[in-house]
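New here. Invent one.

***
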Amino acid sequence: MPVDHYENFPVASFLVPAALRRPIEAIYRFARGADDIADEGDASADQRLAGLDAYRAELDRIAAGQPAQTPQFAELAEVIAGHALPIGLFSDLLDAFAQDVVKKRYADYVELLDYCRRSANPVGRLVLHLFRRTEPAHLAQSDCICTALQLINFWQDVAIDWQKDRVYLPQTDLVRFRVSQAQIAEGRWDANFAALMDFQIDRSRRLMGQGAPLVKALPGRLGWEIRLTVQGGLRILDRLALARGDVWRRRPTLGPWDWAVMAGRSLTM
């Protein structure tokens, strides 16, 4: 599964039970739509924040039991009510997207993890709520997987994010490995940048390993869906490691052979 945008979580694939595909699609449309408001096009920061405020107003209507003003949110309201989904998880996503509009740098790894807690983890938790598997241990493992996927996306997209004036590599790590923002702007790969990326790859791989046992606790097809998601993230890390983090000339993508590898590895999890 590609680790890109909001395709780094299950989007109603054939492995998901048919009854849950519509709810997952509704969650996806919310997350993707809000993310696009924050990221896509040439709108000003004020316009982006206003668009996210409109999403938040719709969530407030749902929370108050009032009718939604758009078909998209009317459907989302049905999904939230029908599956007792916590509205706070949707609000967390909006907080993260709004943060993306105004915050372009992260001081350290702890600060970055806090962003991931709101930008990525809510989606995994919502999926677990749909499947009624919300034991604390499972939620914690889901958080590890979702955060790892978000971080992998950041490492994969260092060059792309720079074009949006964003640097998700923690500033403390840049200092530690003697990598400057000017070097990122120039697209200059060297031994220091390779060491920095090796460090991030290892960190993300360990985090994914902490979450991976979740696949054994989930029923049938959901377990296989998450297996492929985990293996997709790990395969991107393999590609990043092979390229020594040179995302300017060797940005990792997944092809047919990678899918075969992922499927094979999924069988042994």
